[in-house]
Sequence to fold (89 residues):
Amino acid sequence: MKNGNKNSLLDMGLLKKAGIFGLISAEIIGFVGGGFFLGKMLDNKLHSEPVFSVLFACLGLGYCVWRILQISKKWFRDSPNSDIAKNKE
Fold:
């Protein structure tokens, strides 16, 4: 920062971390919840009560785990202090 205040609320590293955690939270809520509600609609239509809601919620959770791994790899690769970045050089 130009003013030398490292504890500033406008620290870009802090904002980037908050954005990443917000993105992960939104994806978990969206995909797991969306999968559950889509499955619930299919279960009501096909009269197969817990099958599709559980299946689609698990698919949403699996996708979220994959996305978290992808975001984590990118985050650690872009971090100047990470061991992954040091080993690439």
Notes: Residues 12-46 form the longest helix (35 residues). The mean pLDDT is 83.
